[in-house]
Amino acid sequence: MSVAKVTEISSSSTVSFEDAIKQGIARASRTLHGIQGAWIKEQKIVCAGGDITEYRVDMKVTFVLKD
Predict the structure, then answer these.
(1) In angstroms, rounded to a whole number, what is the distance separating the alpha carbons of residues 44 and 51?
(2) 52, 17 in Cβ contact below 8 A?
């Protein structure tokens, strides 16, 4: 039997939403082991002068707890 935990994280990128997700998962995997997936809860952008300057995502990351 396995037990999973869900934790919420936020990450950002100046490139794209996809890059923000990849960076967030990469960083989380340095601390959380056994990541099984993530749910993208929210996407936001930061604008300046009519241009997008930052992409932000809030996600729920699911990982399996060790025995």
Answers:
(1) 14
(2) no
Q: Which residue matches tokens 């995997």? A: 29
Count of all residues that appear for the chain in the document:
67
State the pTM of this model: 0.89
Amino acid identity of residue 49, one-letter, is: G
pLDDT per residue of the chain (67 residues) written in tens, 0 to 9: 789 999 999 999 999 999 999 999 999 999 999 999 999 999 999 999 999 999 999 999 999 998 7
Looking up tokens 């960076």 gives 23
- Pairwise CA distance, residues 55 & 13, whole Å: 5
Both tokens assigned to 31: 């601390």
Maximum alpha-carbon separation in the chain? 53
